[in-house]
């Protein structure tokens, strides 16, 4: 009970601050919007190999990629924690008996809420372009990217608390997220990839997420890709939460 | 005793290039702090004050030794220690975009205090620390002194038995510093034991009931400021004389009130128990022999002299 109360307390505070300064929510949608407007039409033509590609089909392939991309950015949560660290807020939290898992989870859940808001918005904005997706399928897809956000934002927090400086954080994040992003088949499905690239991509958990979300947007919730994505994300998320809350609990110099 | 530590130790590994060095930040600290006193930790930067404080506040795990704080064992039950202490960090603890009131309410709630009571406590703390006027403005609009007062209010919002203040006045202007001393005394009046660190001599002298002087990770002296000063050689009377200093010095060979005598090129330095009563004797002795006096100066020992006597260095220099 104390844990739930503590989590709520941390979450509430984070939400309050987010709403007070919602610029990050906006920034988070601008990039996928650019892709939606400036890149999707190009991609539709590229995918139109046999001349049967429709707008609906193109956006069913493209929007899931955008959702995974937005979720991937939640790893950048670590920058926020460095600012909190510097302001002394983390230390102030750590001298109280508040649950260490709550300190992490309350923050990560804020990131999940933000992601879900962005995901819904991106999806809705694609509808006028021709996207068609079932509500149930979309909700399940949001669950997948939500889990992914939980996983990545908690990892980002642990990274920020460990590296303690934006200067160290930026190159690490860029180096790690770039290949993950490319190997997740966000822009183009990896079906076009040469075999060796596919083999490498199989080790990227978020490639499975993209596949799962695409299957859902295509209206195939029974597709293997859906349960596979869930089966890969869930244990990873639990592990990330466990390890990251240990970082919160540990004495940070 | 509300704080009792024994042989508390902490070392850090630091990397310089390819070499890793172990730095012993705190090497065996034994402390006894009585309930209701303002206890000060005086020492130069890097002496291990903050490290010790952070260990006592459960932020750092000690490598060895024991500590009991407000009846709770630091090593075995840090959670209970957290409930009984407050901690105010050196670098501040407020978030720019939150208001003082929000910070106080949230912090109280993190100690398990209910919503209504947290609000009440926050309001009261804002009153006590003269912050009511700014309570609903964002912290980034506060002055350094105001922000520091919010920090202190945060540290005591749950009515702890002991409150740790790490360099509470560092970075404040003289006026805010004087104000802060008042706030610290207020905490003692509220019945709290205050444990603070400082590298200001005047602060340690004026504010602390008792203090420990720390250097290189160890406590080199402990006591009330008055006792510590008494421990050093007492007052110093310096006399500038014209002519041969050595000859003048000989006049004090049999003077019982002089504990020790040093000479420089132009001056005599007489260490005496009480300078005020010694000066007339000194003047008479010199005058009787026709020594011309150019000036006389009485120097009462400061905590810096204590530090000098214990470590061989001046605190001002280190």
From TrEMBL, chain A:
GO molecular function per UniProt: ABC-type transporter activity
Membrane topology: Multi-pass membrane protein
PROSITE patterns: ABC_TM2
Keyword field: Antibiotic resistance, Cell membrane, Membrane, Transmembrane, Transmembrane helix, Transport
One of the GO biological process terms: response to antibiotic
Record InterPro entries: ABC2_TM, ABC2_TM_bact-type, ABC_2_transport, Nod_factor_ABC_transporter
Transmembrane domains' residue ranges: 21-41, 61-83, 115-133, 139-159, 180-197, 225-243
Cellular component aspect of the GO annotation: ATP-binding cassette (ABC) transporter complex
Cellular location(s): Cell membrane; Membrane
Domain ABC transmembrane type-2, residue spans: 23-251
PANTHER family, A to Z: NODULATION PROTEIN J (PTHR43229)
Stated family: Belongs to the ABC-2 integral membrane protein family.
Name the record gives this protein: Transport permease protein
UniProtKB/TrEMBL annotation, chain B:
Organism: Catellatospora bangladeshensis
NCBIfam families given in the database record: drrA (TIGR01188)
Bilayer-crossing regions: none
GO-annotated molecular function: ATP binding; ATP hydrolysis activity
One of the protein's GO biological processes: doxorubicin transport
Protein's UniProt keywords contain Cell inner membrane: no
Any matching Pfam family: DrrA1-3_C
Keyword Transport among record annotations: yes
Signal peptide positions on this chain: none
Domain annotation ABC transporter: ranges: 3-241
Family (UniProt): Belongs to the ABC transporter superfamily. Drug exporter-1 (DrugE1) (TC 3.A.1.105) family.
Compartment(s) of residence: Cell membrane
Membrane topology term: Peripheral membrane protein
PROSITE patterns: ABC_TRANSPORTER_1 (PS00211), ABC_TRANSPORTER_2 (PS50893)
Keywords: ATP-binding, Nucleotide-binding, Transport
Protein name (database record): Daunorubicin resistance protein DrrA family ABC transporter ATP-binding protein
């Amino acid at each position: 009970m104390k844990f739930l109360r503590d989590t709520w307390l941390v979450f509430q505070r984070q939400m309050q601050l987010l709403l007070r300064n919602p610029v990050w929510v906006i920034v988070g949608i601008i990039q996928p919007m650019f892709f939606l407007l400036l890149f999707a039409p190009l991609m539709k033509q590229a995918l139109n190999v046999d001349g049967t590609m429709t707008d609906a089909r193109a956006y069913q392939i493209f929007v899931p990629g955008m959702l995974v991309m937005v979720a991937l950015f939640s790893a950048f949560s670590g920058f926020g924690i460095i600012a909190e660290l510097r302001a002394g807020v983390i230390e102030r939290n750590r001298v109280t008996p508040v649950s260490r898992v709550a300190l992490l989870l309350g923050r990560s859940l804020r990131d999940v809420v933000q992601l879900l808001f962005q995901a819904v918005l991106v999806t809705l904005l694609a509808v006028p372009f021709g996207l068609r997706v079932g509500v149930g399928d979309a909700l399940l897809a949001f669950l997948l990217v939500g889990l992914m956000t939980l996983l990545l934002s908690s990892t980002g927090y642990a990274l920020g608390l460990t590296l303690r400086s934006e200067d160290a954080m930026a190159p690490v994040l860029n180096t790690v997220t770039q290949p993950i992003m490319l190997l997740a088949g966000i822009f183009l499905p990896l079906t076009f990839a040469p075999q060796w690239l596919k083999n490498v991509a199989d080790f990227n958990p978020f490639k499975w997420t993209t596949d799962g979300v695409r299957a859902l947007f295509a209206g195939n919730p029974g597709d293997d890709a859906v349960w596979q994505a869930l089966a890969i994300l869930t244990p990873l998320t639990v592990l990330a939460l466990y390890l990251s809350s240990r970082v919160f609990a540990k004495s940070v110099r | 005793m509300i704080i009792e530590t024994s042989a508390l130790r902490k070392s850090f590994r630091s990397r310089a290039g390819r070499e890793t060095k172990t730095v012993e930040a705190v090497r065996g600290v034994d402390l006894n702090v009585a309930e209701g006193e303002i206890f000060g930790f005086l020492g130069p930067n890097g002496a291990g004050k903050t490290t010790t404080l952070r260990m006592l506040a459960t932020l750092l795990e000690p490598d060895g030794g024991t500590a009991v704080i407000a009846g709770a064992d630091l090593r075995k039950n840090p959670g209970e220690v957290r409930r009984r202490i407050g901690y105010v960090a050196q670098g501040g603890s407020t978030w720019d975009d939150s208001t003082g009131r929000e910070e106080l309410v949230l912090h109280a709630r993190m100690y398990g205090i209910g919503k209504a009571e947290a609000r009440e406590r926050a309001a009261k703390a804002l009153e006590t620390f003269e912050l009511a006027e700014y309570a609903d403005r964002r912290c980034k609009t506060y002055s350094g002194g105001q922000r520091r007062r919010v920090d202190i209010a945060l540290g005591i919002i749950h009515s702890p038995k002991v409150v740790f203040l790490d360099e509470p006045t560092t970075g404040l202007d003289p006026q805010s510093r004087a104000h802060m001393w008042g706030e610290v005394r207020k905490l003692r009046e509220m019945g709290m034991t205050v444990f603070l660190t400082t590298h200001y001599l005047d602060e340690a002298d004026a504010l602390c009931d008792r203090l420990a002087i720390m250097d290189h990770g160890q406590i080199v002296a402990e006591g009330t400021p008055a006792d510590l000063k008494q421990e050093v050689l007492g007052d110093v009377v310096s006399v500038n004389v014209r002519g041969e200093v050595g000859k003048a010095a000989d006049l004090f060979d049999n003077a019982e009130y002089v504990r020790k005598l040093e000479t420089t090129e132009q001056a005599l330095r007489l260490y005496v128990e009480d300078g005020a009563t010694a000066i007339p004797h000194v003047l008479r002795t010199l005058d009787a022999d026709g020594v011309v006096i150019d000036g006389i100066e009485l120097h009462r020992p400061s905590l810096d002299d204590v530090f000098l006597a214990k470590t061989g260095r001046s605190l001002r220099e280190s």
